[in-house]
Design brief:
916 residues, alpha+beta, Rossmann fold, 6-stranded antiparallel beta sheet, 29% helix, RNaseH_pPIWI_RE, RNaseH domain-containing protein
Length: 916
């Protein structure tokens, strides 16, 4: 084990598939630099391409990913076409003959510019690249702190070198024969020929999972050392071309599997034209026949069916496709095997994992120990929490369609608020003082059909709901509803058109928006699924044991969903009890405002064959929470949105956001340099919100900011690894673009900005922990939920970087949810339980960035760990701190969130194409 601070040598440590790269890992790199003529020619080629695609207003680049895929297939190793810092050059991991270079560039260029003025530029560029001598790269840049960008080629090469080492290994994964992973031209590893099959279904179809290994660039945080991560995934192989985005082509004589992307609408997929044209031309050259397989010119359905098992073509299905008979994930044992293989066979990465040591005095174990407050808010705590939320009296309305839902909700209200088994509430009759002096309950049957499915608009439903509630006095009361809609997500539809029509007429979304416009917080409840069958499909009776277990699971799911619906309704009303303060334990609870900033760029609506140049809208929300007094007192929650342009109680901002259409138009915000409209808008709106927070939030106090690094690093440059702990550059065009709150006067800036990361490709997969045993040896544990802190590079102290590992809830539920804990999905034992998902650890990385001299970065980071472990209403651990989660839920709970986060197509597919 590597060095750690004195006195902490034997403390518990995290196991993590993250490895620091050695300066010699990159190996030899050859550069082909044709000189200024190549750069000018490249610009001419780009200009001709923009004119050809008919978009001269934006910086449209030629499709160079297919170019790199073919270059790597021809060379057999890493290659990159790099245009940066006023220089165009071809970088390769081995020497490449000039004739091969010329052919690749020429055939690729002919595919994108077959005629016209760009044809001459293609010819000149190909000749210049072929004539450029191959020289070792001078002053090879070594991996440095924070460089994680895909545009930084040494980081990509470091990942490639580790992938090459792993591709040379034979993996003993528990099966009868060793498995091998083939290196693909995009840098991933695929177990080509070792696909995991499912059992044949009733029609004899067999689905297959392709195991893959991905090498990523780690988030360095405050560390000065570059690192890479290893993660394993499984992807379903497609049995039709609908929606396919990735295609793998391989053959035994080819050193690399060529990765090709598809374009076109989902119902008419085609392979990238440059890749197809270049590969077919190169495959005709005798010297390259064994290197470049010919891509199929057309994607035929029988191409997949005939070659899915043994052939060269493997199409990867979209992630949204279900896997009948197949679970996802390799299982935890697979990650431990990867760790063992790297330690045994990859000398450059052996014992180079960053050291994370358990944080002393910060206990965040599972809920059973009592460290995390679980369950609903107790009735004796509701009055104080309602006072903190500014709610004097609450009217809870239950809008139902079926008696089953009505009785289930009535039982749950009685259970959560300790009303006894004899609690009864009648329809159309207000049950006063369910919580004395604070809460009334009303059950109503939706006879008007305000929640029913159909083409009724939100305005029409708003009128129906207003008439439905008119007989009941609501003056001075906050109204909230628990709603039932008749929607079965598992219902099968004969055609895609019928499903689209049913989803478009789903009554949940317009009725939820209608209630938001009436100032009513709404929460929807799950309907009861179909009864447990007593007969099998073949007519045989089911076993009593199966019926018993299935019935118990069904009832348990209904009780859990009803409990969570009522608790989420209370959370949406910003009723926060003392549980957050209690969770701090021995940590000091300072009167800070904890502010979460959520920014999401919407999916750009597009129509195939046409470019949409208007900037995509964004959603920007901020949520602020703060303890009212001590650890035994409730918390207050406020929120900000561009729609309201002011800080208001969380409930009001949430309703205002849900009453309007999702998204905020950013086309009017000016940009500087290569800044996007979304980044400009997010930075300026956030700065205005933090400025207003100084005067509009009650109980003024210092601020701590929480942001999601995976989605906001393009907005604030100070969040990027290479800029941590560094002052902003002198020529920064806009202070608001450095860090949230940086544009405020120094005395008013936040104490710190806490960057959270959930992407395991940047964190590394946790593999458990190492504990120093009584025998003075390191002992491996399979699970760990402890918080860890990163040891400094010199091993003398700690950095304000924290890691919080989590095991999934199925593992905590017991042995049935622990598939993959003792063997990988390749093992023969896995065949009996192939339909189960393989469990694996997840993690959250927190990096505290102090912005004032007196900020205690370690304490702020530990507070972020507590706010991840303890939620407002949820019993389990969260994936982000509570203020960031509250800000995010304003967006994700929007009635039409799904329409703005998917990739819609403006032109619906023709029925014949969809059916095929």
């Amino acid at each position: 084990m590597t060095a750690c601070p004195p006195g902490d040598e034997h403390r518990k440590r995290a196991g993590l598939l993250q490895y620091r790269t050695h300066p010699n890992v990159l190996g030899a790199v050859f550069a082909h630099r044709p000189g200024p003529v190549a750069l000018d020619t490249w610009h001419d080629l780009c200009r001709a391409y923009r004119e050809r695609v008919g978009d001269t207003r934006q910086d449209v680049q030629p499709p160079y990913r297919p170019l790199e895929a073919i270059l790597r297939a021809v060379l057999g190793t890493w290659a990159r076409w790099d245009v940066s810092n006023g220089q165009a050059q071809l970088l390769t991991g081995a020497e490449m003959p000039g004739e091969d270079r010329r052919d690749v560039f020429l055939y690729w260029g002919e595919a994108i510019l077959p005629d016209g003025p760009g044809r001459a530029a293609v010819q000149r560029l190909a000749d210049a690249i072929a004539e450029a001598p191959a020289v070792p790269y001078p002053d090879l840049p070594r991996p440095v702190a924070g460089r994680r960008s895909l545009d930084w080629w040494p980081g990509e090469l470091a990942r490639w070198r580790l992938a090459e080492d792993l591709a040379a290994l034979e993996w003993q994964l528990g099966g009868a024969h060793p498995a091998r992973f083939q290196l693909c031209t995009d840098g991933t590893l695929a177990a080509v020929g070792h696909e995991v099959p499912s059992s044949p279904d009733g029609e004899g179809r067999q689905r297959r999972l392709l195991p893959r290994i991905k090498i990523g660039t780690a988030a360095a945080g405050h560390s000065a050392r570059h690192a890479v991560t290893v993660n394993a995934v499984t992807t379903l192989l497609a049995d039709r071309w609908y929606g396919v985005r990735t295609v793998l082509l391989s053959n035994p004589e080819q050193p690399l599997a060529v990765v090709a992307r598809t374009d076109g609408p989902p119902w008419r997929r085609r392979l990238n034209v440059p890749a197809v044209a270049a590969s077919r031309r190169l495959a005709g050259l005798p010297r390259l026949t064994h290197r470049v397989p010919p891509f199929p010119e057309a994607l035929e359905e029988d191409l997949i069916a005939a070659t899915a098992e043994l052939g060269a073509v493997r199409a990867v299905a979209p992630e949204s496709v279900t896997t009948p008979g197949l679970g996802r994930g390799h299982g935890m044992e697979m990650f431990r095997r990867i760790e063992e293989h790297i330690d045994q066979h990859c000398e450059a990465y052996r014992d180079t994992s960053p050291v994370y040591i358990e944080v002393p005095g910060l206990s965040v174990p599972t809920a059973k120990t009592g460290a995390r407050t679980s369950g609903p808010i107790l009735p004796q705590h509701l009055p104080a929490a309602m006072d903190a939320a500014g709610i004097d009296r609450l009217l809870l309305v239950v809008l139902h369609h079926t008696d089953e839902v009505r009785s289930r909700v009535q039982r749950e209200i009685a259970r959560q608020w300790h009303l006894g088994d004899d609690f009864v509430a009648f329809d159309t009759e207000v049950k006063h003082d369910v919580i004395p002096g604070r809460v009334d309950v009303l059950f109503l049957h939706d006879k008007a059909g305000a929640l029913a499915h159909g083409p009724a608009t939100a305005e029409h439903r708003q009128q129906q709901l207003a008439e439905l509630l008119a007989p009941f006095p609501t003056e001075g009361k906050v109204v909230a509803t628990l709603c039932e809609t008749q929607w079965d997500p598992n219902r099968k539809y004969p055609t895609p058109e019928e499903r689209q029509k049913a989803e478009a007429e789903d009554g949940k979304w317009p009725s939820k928006q209608a209630q938001a416009r009436l100032g009513i917080s709404a929460q929807y409840i799950k309907q009861a699924p179909a009864p447990v069958p007593t007969l099998k499909k073949n007519g045989e009776p089911c076993s009593p044991y199966f019926i018993k277990k299935a019935t118990e699971a069904r009832e348990s799911g209904l009780v859990s969903s009803t409990e969570n619906a009522l608790r989420d309704l209370v959370r949406g009303l910003d009723i926060v009890d003392h549980r957050l303060g209690t969770a701090f334990g021995k940590l000091p609870l300072h009167p800070w405002w904890h502010i979460g900033i959520h920014v999401r760029r919407h999916a750009q609506r597009r129509q195939y064959g046409h470019r949409n140049t208007k900037p995509a809208p964004v959603t920007i929300t901020l949520a602020a929470i703060r303890p009212v007094d001590g650890p035994d007192e409730p918390w207050t929650a406020w929120a900000y949105s561009p729609i309201t342009s002011q800080w208001e109680p969380y409930r009001r901002t949430r309703l205002a956001a849900h009453a309007a259409d999702p998204g905020y138009d950013v086309s009017g915000f000016p940009t500087i340099g290569d800044e996007s409209h979304q980044a400009s808008a997010a930075a300026q709106i956030t700065e205005a919100a933090l400025t207003a927070a100084r005067t509009q939030l009650p109980l003024p106090g210092p601020m701590v900011i929480y942001v999601d690094g995976d989605t906001t690093e393009y907005i604030w440059a100070g969040l990027r690894d290479e800029n941590l702990a560094h002052p902003p550059p002198a020529g920064l065009p806009r202070p608001a673009s450095w860090l949230p709150g940086h544009g405020l006067p120094p005395a008013q800036r936040p104490l710190a900005v806490v960057r959270t990361i959930n992407d395991l490709e940047r964190i590394g997969r946790p593999t458990g922990a190492y504990v120093w045993g009584n025998n003075e040896q390191w002992r491996r544990t399979k699970t760990s939920e402890s918080p860890y802190q990163l040891v400094s590079d010199d091993g003398t102290g700690y950095l304000p970087d924290f890691l919080l590992t989590t095991v999934p809830r199925p593992w905590a539920a017991g042995p049935p949810g622990r598939f993959g804990s003792d063997f990988s999905r390749f093992a023969p034992e896995a065949a009996k339980r192939q339909g189960k998902n393989g469990y694996a650890h997840t993690a959250v990385r927190l990096t505290a960035i102090p912005t004032t001299d007196d900020a205690d970065a370690d304490l702020i980071g530990k507070a972020g760990v507590v706010l991840i472990n303890q939620g407002v209403s949820w019993d389990g651990r969260q994936t982000e701190p509570t203020p960031l989660r509250l800000a995010k839920q304003i967006d994700t709970n929007h009635p039409y969130y799904r329409r703005s986060c998917e990739e819609p197509e403006d032109s619906p597919p023709p029925p014949a194409a969809m059916d095929s």
